[in-house]
Amino acid sequence: MNNVTDAKHLQQAQELDLSNFWMPFTANKQFKAAPRLFKKAKGMYYTTVDDRQVIDAVAGLWCVNAGHCREEIAHAIANQASEMDYAPTFQMGHPLAFEAASRVAEVMPAGMDRIFFANSGSEAVDSALKIALAYHRARGEGQRTRLIGRERGYHGVGFGGISVGGIVANRKAFSANLIPGVDHMPATLSIEHAAFSRGQPAWGAHLADELERILNLHDPSTVAAVIVEPVAGSAGVLIPPQGYLQRLREICTKHGILLIFDEVITGFGRLGKATASEYFGVTPDLLTMAKAINNAAIPMGAVAAKREIYDTIVNNGPANGIELFHGYTYSAHPVAAAACLAAQDIYEREALFERAAQMAPKFEAAIHDLKGEPYVKDIRNLGLVGGVELESREGQPGTRAYDAFLHCFKNGVMVRFTGDILAFSPPLILDESHIDQIFSTVRAALRAVH
Ligand code: PMP
User: Fold this and answer.
1) Which residue of 41, 252, 270, 311 is surrounded by the most CB atoms within 10 Å?
2) How far does residue 433's CA lie from ligand 1's centre (Å)?
3) Is the distance from the beta carbon of residue 121 to the nearest atom of ligand 1 less than 6 Å?
4) In this structure, are 338 and 275 located in the same domain?
């Protein structure tokens, strides 16, 4: 049976017409010259169409935290799709939507237990920004419309997300006029002062004071929200300096500004706790999540809001009308909600967040062991997320990490590259042998690229 399926897959791949699918975030021409295609996944591994096993050092796209193709999740999805494929959650609902919200609320920071469902990280971010604006209006502070993000921040690809985000490439091809009234704090990159820090750099808490500076340029009472990734992922793994997030929290509280943590990557165990908020002991007002919320088996995103935010919007809304005019056809989709419940069961039963915390020191030791390899300029890590920044080739930024990525892929390891940074965020189920396999291959790749 398997041989037949495998042969079919290989034949399909060879006959595959690559012309119709417009690949997202991909160098399309470059990809077609050297396609990389998977046909199966299980646990820590993908199988390519030509039957090679490739270890997944990125949990897909920072999302498959419990490892691939978990049977409990697959069954939950299949059962739900045949039991009740779809039901609206506008003005009516289904029990799974409420159960999934309660289950997610259980692992959120205390008091952040009102859950709004979306279908992706981008939608979660745009929902959170809208909730922030609606909250201030509801409490009679409708002048608070300014938003503050951070350079190199990644908050998805909606117009809200690219406006508060700070990755130039995500913005410049589209419009010079994104959401008006947005400022950006500096990124918390500290190569010059704290290269090769293990965990949180000691240098850089003062970068949070840039928020005060920006607020002083305006009237702080015009600012609605500040949004940051507690650990910035997509721009190359930037770890917050010690004390930095606490300082942001103090400044936001002082000025009545909402703090939004974008936990699309850090949510559900990446740092060894359910959320980065719990890990750092800093509670935001709104928290966005997606990806590992249901082990990425089917699209789902969400916003957790403090009770006070929900109450303010709902209590100040019309007596019998809609209080927040926002939602998606697929908000709390029954199949995604079923997958969410199954994934949360696995996280709890297998104590995967604790497991991530246990494996983190081993991951840290292994990634920092790459210091001294060719072109390695900085290594950053926290929990089970890490980045290795390489010196760029003169006039050809990004090509060195791309070459290393290709070398790893050919040698059975899937890493992620962004600019000249190699990023790692393996499934939380990994063991020491996986860590060895990943980093010995990366070491060989760096030497080969040299
Ligand atoms: N926010 C963060 C912090 C992310 O890392 C991502 C995706 N990598 C997003 C938002 C967007 O999520 P999605 O691709 O599901 O829209």
Assistant:
1) 270
2) 29
3) yes
4) yes
Q: Is 119 in the pocket of ligand 1 (CB under 6 A)?
A: no
Number of domains, the chain: 2
DSSP β-ladder status, 416-418 and 421-424? antiparallel
- Report CA(272)–ligand 1 centroid distance (Å): 20
CA-nearest of 274, 332, 348, 260 to 300 is 332
CB 434 near ligand 1, within 6 Å: no
Residue 424 CB–ligand 1 contact under 6 Å: no
Q: Residue 2 C-alpha to ligand 1 middle, in angstroms? A: 35
Q: How far apart are CA 271 and CA 261, in angstroms?
A: 14
154 pocket-lining for ligand 1 (C-beta < 6 Å): yes
Does 355 lie in the same domain as 220?
no
Domain closes at, from 320, 349, 378: 349
Give the residue numbers spanning the domain of 443. 2-66+351-449
What tens digit of pLDDT does each residue of 343-355 get?
Answer: 999 999 999 999 9
pLDDT digits (tens, 9 = 90+) for 353-384: 999 999 999 999 999 999 999 999 999 999 99
The stretch 273-294 carries a mean pLDDT of 98
> Does 101 lie in the same domain as 112?
yes
> Do 248 and 111 share a structural domain?
yes
* CATH code assigned at 100: 3.40.640.10
Q: How far apart are CA 268 and CA 291, in angstroms?
A: 9
Task: Give residue 11's pLDDT.
Answer: 62
Are residues 37 and 180 located together in one domain of the fold?
Answer: no
Cα(124)–Cα(116) distance, integer angstroms: 8
What is the atom index within ligand 1 of the atom nearest the CA of 121?
Answer: 12
